[in-house]
User: Fold this.
Amino acid sequence: MDTNIFIEVFARSGTKSDKCKKLLAEGKDLITTSLVVSEIEWVLRTAYLLDRNGTSKYIKSILTSGIEVDNKKNLIQTLNFYEYNNVDWTDCLNMFLIKEKNISKAYSYDKGLNKFDWIKRLEP
Assistant:
C-alpha cells in the first residue's frame, strides 16, 4: 500500500477515502513499507500540520493492524522513542536501524543525534 491510501483514510474525506477505509477494514493481504510509514509521518506533519501526538496515533494504528510492514520491530521502537522525545522521525528510525546493526558511531553535524545514547556522533 502506498502513502496516498493511508492519507485518504487519515486526513481526507470523500468517495476515494471511503474506498480506502473499506480496503483497510477488509485487511486482506495488505503490505506496506517502512519508507511509506516515514512518508506518512512527513505528509501528516508538513501538509496537514499534525503534531507529534497526531502523527504517532496514525503510525501506531498501522503498526498494530494486520498490515504487513517491513522493519516492523524497528518501527515500533522508533515510534516509542519518537512519541516521548523531541526528535526527527527519520533520524529516529535511522538511529534504531543503526543500533540493530551494532553500530555505535555516526558521522553527522546534526546535534539532535546526541539524544540517542547508543550513538556517538562524530563530525568529519
About this structure: Strands lie at 31-32, 68-69, 105-107, 120-122. The two ends are 39 Å apart (CA to CA). The first helix runs from residue 3 to 11. Helices lie at 3-11, 15-26, 34-46, 52-63, 72-84, 89-100.
